[in-house]
Design a protein that fits this description.
By secondary structure, this protein is mostly helical. Helix content is 51%, strand content 0%. The protein contains four helices and no strands. Helix 1 (3-13) crosses helix 3 (38-52). The longest helix has 15 residues, at 38-52. The radius of gyration is 12 Å and the shape is globular. It starts with a helix and ends with a helix.
Length: 82
């Protein structure tokens, strides 16, 4: 999953339909500054699970503050455990 994938998902989950408002590098911009609350993040996480087959715990939402932190968790969850 890339930052661009996440950017599209955030826009879709917020009902924007495009990436208006999140055109710049959003990696380290807090979700609150981007206008995303915990409900929007839960919807985004559900979509990540569906589209990318990655299981993320719902309580993770409280610990995520930036797109970079969400992408890091997706990468960790994507790595097979031996």
């Amino acid at each position: 999953m890339t930052l661009e994938d996440l950017r599209r998902m955030l826009a879709d989950c917020a009902g924007e339909g495009d990436t208006v408002g999140i055109q710049d590098d959003i990696s380290d911009t807090p979700f609150t500054d981007l206008g995303y609350d915990s409900l929007a993040l839960l919807e985004t996480i559900a979509r990540i699970e569906r589209d990318f087959g990655v299981a993320l715990p719902e309580d993770l939402v409280a610990t995520l503050d930036t797109p970079r932190s969400l992408l890091a968790e997706v990468q960790k969850a994507s790595v097979p455990v031996d």
